[in-house]
Amino acid sequence: MRALRFDFSLPRLAYSKILGTFYKGAYFDRFSALRYVDIPEPELPGEDWVKVRTAYCGICASDLHAILLNGGMDNPTQPFISFPMVLGHEIVGTVEETGTKVEGLSKGDRVLVFAMLSCVPRGIEPLCPACQAGDIALCRNLAEGNLPPGLIMGTNNKINGGFAPFVVAHRAQCFKIPQEVGFEEAVLGDPFCVSMHAIMQNPPNSGDRVLVYSIGTLGLSAIIALRTLYPECRVIAVGRHTFQKELAERYGAHEVIDPGSGIFEEVARITGGKVYKVRRGKPILIGGVDIVYDCVGSADTIETGLRLTREKGKVILIGADNPKRFEWTPIWLRDITLKGSMALGVNDYKGRKMHSFEIFLELLRDKRIDVKSLITHKYRLEQYREAFRTCINKKTSKSIKVLFDFS
Q1: CATH for 2-189+359-405?
Q2: How far is CA 18 from CA 7, 15, 61, 73, in A?
Q3: pLDDT per residue over 69-82, tens digit each?
Q4: DSSP bridge partners of 403
Q5: Where are the domains of the chain?
Q6: Prediction pTM value
Q7: Per CATH, is 203-340 categorized as 3.30.413.10?
Q8: Is 123 left (phi over 0), alpha (psi -120 to 50) or beta?
């Protein structure tokens, strides 16, 4: 089968890194580390695994970070990646084959695949404390067990990701899609639940003013989740592009503001806070929002978020950008909590412990959320260069979620 494989090749990496400064296409042309190649169709690693025919796979910002080599040599995720790897972890498809020990799934079932390679897929017993607690994404065994190192499908040299026509997944990773829900809705499960899980782990109180920083896929998903699950909070969205702002308003953001230099005055107006200037750099707001859900995670957005948050407020990192220095004085000056959120897992929902994907699929089935408008572009896998250019050039392409279409 033909797949998009990322090889760790120093000459290819050097080529992309040098030329990519001037020409982004160097990161995914024929001399780059990313190649469209023939690889073997995957076989079931065990009798409790299934093979899935990919219908759609979304292109995540983390896929782009890998392709564009946006990572430092000291990045602590390195021990949990193995090469070569077929990227892609936002996967929906149809069960093609089941192992003899698989229960509850049959050939032809439509599934949403949870890509995390934690204790269960790795055949590890007993489960680590994190997996026992339902914090599956915080598994302690991401380089142990029956599989090579790899956080998720797509970062593992044995279990390929969804930039390929077929994937294999453990039974526990597969969630049946209700009859009422289409593939084009279900494929947004991973990005939507990344935002929803972060919010449910760090929920706003009734009447809180929360700021969603950046309104791409994660940010718009955060707005939908907040307005659906915590309707009594007030949502301020921060976005640059008109097409994103229009969607944020459509999904229920109460205020949509620009991330430029006027952001401090705008948030002060909304919250009743007061802006104080400093000699150099960004101002600081006294008062401000109760929670910032940062869907970028860059040094700039983290610092701005901290300066916009009231005393004893929270900044929750949902997005993850390349780390750089930032001014963190507001953390202690205003007693602010800066907290990360990793992927998704088990959440409390209506008095039940449920996997984030189960909550998402139930919300779709009951028509409590509508996410289809987040999908703006679809490409065949062989059109990958055009797909990545669409993702990179958001201002001109007006892209939000871009899919590879295998249907």
Answers
A1: 3.90.180.10
A2: 17, 5, 22, 16
A3: 887 778 888 999 99
A4: 58, 378
A5: 2-189+359-405, 203-340
A6: 0.95
A7: no
A8: left
